[in-house]
Design a protein that fits this description.
CATH topology: UDP-N-acetylmuramoyl-L-alanine:D-glutamate ligase
Bound molecules: adenosine-5'-diphosphate, (4-amino-2-methylpyrimidin-5-yl)methyl dihydrogen phosphate
Strand order of the largest sheet: 3-2-1-4-5-6-7-8-9
Number of helices: 8
Domain Pyridoxamine kinase/Phosphomethylpyrimidine kinase: 21-262
Helix content: 25-40%
Enzyme class: transferase
Number of strands: 9
Keywords: Kinase, Thiamine biosynthesis, Transferase
Distance between the termini: 44 Å
Structural class: alpha/beta
Radius of gyration: 19 Å
Pfam family, one: Phos_pyr_kin
Strand content: 15-25%
Pathway: Cofactor biosynthesis; thiamine diphosphate biosynthesis; 4-amino-2-methyl-5-diphosphomethylpyrimidine from 5-amino-1-(5-phospho-D-ribosyl)imidazole: step 3/3
Length: 276
């Protein structure tokens, strides 16, 4: 007798709206692999194609707005998106488009403006569009301290920048690498809710030069946790733990001539050498 098979549970669908990185460390590559590592199905809307490696960005080819719009329509008209995240958007028109389509949903905005290598991936008009259109309708925004200062047009402590950005209407995590601790032993992220207190969230620092794609991985993991229904503090803690574990896995790698990729792998398949 053939028994009726129970239908497997559908994975949550997570959407990445980001640029590609030909070196496979940041952007779409980091987002989709993080979604997969955390058990989600990843959809991706590509906003720009970058020629990039571990040492820097050689070329940026923006995807036309109407193509970004068509990709967004294709995903949103077909798939039950539980949460989304944005990375490099590259053009103010694309920032406005994303605000119109994804505003008010479980949306994590990683305002990518400058790459780790120093390349500008979003100019002043993009920063203005984030402030005017996207941050007021996002669930949470995850700039590093430099990006937070560019968005606000002024310097400040990470705590102060987090509080000021949250006044725009969304929760904010100002992320900090190991440079936030003079001893380099811990990293502190600053979490601010609109109108609420700012909390310092510290975790151990990983001593590594392989951190290209870290911010993308963190914000993608944060979107997965929010898609699961976690509250923001739990989601931030889970995303940080995932990121730290990934940085540990790649810390001994020697890939590329520059800042190597953060690990996107889970349990690597090891070569056993067969029966020898
Ligand atoms: N060397 C590190 N060890 C542990 N955590 C890190 C390290 N570098 C970054 N992080 C964490 O990774 C997340 C993303 O931060 P960050 O590196 O500031 O992003 P970005 O790539 O946008 O600059 C944060 O939670 C931050 O604390
Ligand atoms: C396409 C793309 N998106 C995002 C980043 C930022 O990542 P990082 O800060 O690690 O350079 C990047 N370099 N390229």
């Amino acid at each position: 007798m053939i028994r009726a098979q129970r239908r497997p549970v559908d994975p949550p669908v997570l959407l990445s709206v980001a640029g590609t990185d030909s070196g496979g460390a940041a952007g779409t590559a980091a987002d989709l692999t993080t979604f997969a590592a955390l058990g989600a199905h990843g959809a991706c809307v590509v906003t720009a194609v970058t020629a990039q490696d571990t040492t820097g960005v050689r070329d940026v080819h923006p995807v036309p707005r109407r193509s970004v719009e068509a990709q967004l329509d294709a995903v949103l008209e077909d798939l039950p998106v539980a949460a989304s995240k944005t990375g490099m958007l590259g053009h103010p028109g694309v920032v406005e488009l994303v605000a119109a389509r994804l505003g008010g949903t479980r949306l994590v905005v990683d305002p990518v403006l400058v790459a780790t290598s120093g390349a500008v991936l979003g100019d002043a008009s993009v920063a203005r569009a984030y402030v005017e259109h996207l941050l007021p309708v996002a669930a949470v925004c995850t700039p590093n301290a430099d990006e937070a200062a560019v968005l606000l047009g002024r310097e400040g402590t990470p705590r102060d920048l987090a509080a000021a950005l949250s006044d725009l209407g969304c929760a904010v995590v100002v992320t900090g690498g190991p440079g936030t601790d003079p001893a380099g032993a811990s990293c502190t992220d600053w979490l601010a809710h609109p109108g609420g207190p700012v909390r310092a969230l510290a975790h151990p620092a990983v001593d590594t030069g392989n951190d290209h794609g870290t911010g993308c991985t963190f914000s993608a993991a944060l979107a997965v946790a929010l898609g699961h229904g976690d509250d923001l503090e739990t989601a931030v803690a889970r995303a940080a733990a995932h990121t730290v574990a990934a940085l540990h896995r790649s810390s001994g790698w020697r890939l590329g001539r520059g800042r190597g990729p953060i690990a996107h792998t889970h349990d690597p398949i090891r070569t056993t050498g067969g029966d020898r």
